[in-house]
TrEMBL record:
Name listed for the protein in its UniProt record: DUF1838 family protein
A Pfam family annotated for this UniProt entry: DUF1838
Lineage start: Bacteria, Pseudomonadati, Pseudomonadota, Alphaproteobacteria, Sphingomonadales
Signal peptide range: 1-20
InterPro entries listed in its UniProt record: DUF1838
Keywords per UniProt: Signal
Length: 302
């Protein structure tokens, strides 16, 4: 039995124990820092500490260039596999750390097959497609109280009838590892926005009789061109729009993802270890490493 199956079996045991002991169950209060943190943990994590959770999303990728209609460039299928582990701080309380890795595959918009190469309609060049494969994508530790003592609060959560909604906007503007050392003066910083809209049943997320919750998610990303597209500084942006949900098992992923992972990304069937010390990766950092290796290989040939 592999590690993922063992962890899934453990999750079932934990869930059964919780259901067999309803006296400890209660409804979480989003206004209390400890409960607010638990609601976020149930949104993000598995059925118990150390048990994997899988998010899946599916959608489309468009170009937006001033003076021309938007183009449907690719379809996309993605997943993130993560686990959460308990952490404690004498002043900030009992919290958790989330560790994960994620992939998203660019698909032909007509055939839905994974793209290996792409004909760039702006440059006329055929380029090699680099799929999104970021390992790790870890979150900062979360506690009921911040370092300055202020309580943890949920971002913009609201309830409407049986549903709870939690929109999270993440503006990104930071040093681009593919650009130079003078970005504050001449630009070229990495500039993007990620938008995550979680929708969940209020009874499922708030009632601790349930070991976790299974929200749906809408994901929108507005960013610069991917570096592998070789756009050479052309004006324009990419718009990603996808929807998905937290799954109950890895097996629920669509075949196109599972087949590509089995073929080229076998480590993505399980999350990183809970104490993973590595720095996070992005498309830009992964691309830079790939180009540096290719350039070094070319230099050795000379």
């Amino acid at each position: 039995m592999n590690r993922f199956l063992k962890q899934t079996a453990l999750a079932t045991m934990v869930a059964s124990f919780a259901l067999a002991n309803p006296s400890s169950a209660r409804m979480l209060d989003p206004e209390k820092p400890e409960d607010a943190l638990e609601i976020m943990k149930r949104t993000q994590c598995g059925t118990a500490d150390g048990v994997p959770a899988v998010y899946h999303w599916s959608g489309k990728v468009y170009s937006r260039v001033q003076g021309e209609p938007d183009r449907h460039l690719y379809n996309g299928e993605g997943m993130n596999i993560r686990q959460c582990v308990r952490i404690e701080d004498p002043k900030r309380g009992v919290g958790y750390r989330q560790v994960s890795r994620e992939v998203m595959f660019y698909l032909d918009p007509k055939t839905n097959e994974v793209l290996r190469t792409w004909d760039n309609p702006w440059t006329g060049e055929t380029v090699k497609v680099m799929q999104i494969a970021n390992d790790p994508v870890n979150s900062r530790p979360n506690y009921p109280y911040r370092a300055d003592g202020t309580p943890y609060t949920l971002p913009n959560i609201r309830q409407q009838g049986n549903w709870m909604f939690m929109p999270i906007e993440v503006p990104l503007f930071y040093h681009n590892v593919l650009a130079g050392d003078y970005q504050d003066y001449v630009g070229n910083k990495y500039h993007a926005m990620e938008i995550f809209d979680f929708t969940m049943l209020a009874d499922e997320i708030l009632d601790t009789n349930n070991p976790t919750a299974y929200p749906s998610i809408s994901w929108v990303r507005i960013s610069d061109w991917m570096p592998w597209m070789k756009m050479r500084g052309r004006q324009g942006q990419m718009v990603f729009n996808a929807m998905g949900a937290k799954l109950k098992s890895y097996d629920e992923l669509p075949d196109v993802i599972k087949d590509e992972i089995a073929l080229n990304y076998p480590e993505y069937t399980a999350p990183p270890p809970g104490d993973d010390p590595r720095k996070n990766e992005t498309t830009w950092t992964v691309f830079k490493k790939m180009i540096d290796v290719e350039r070094a290989a070319e230099a050795d040939k000379k």
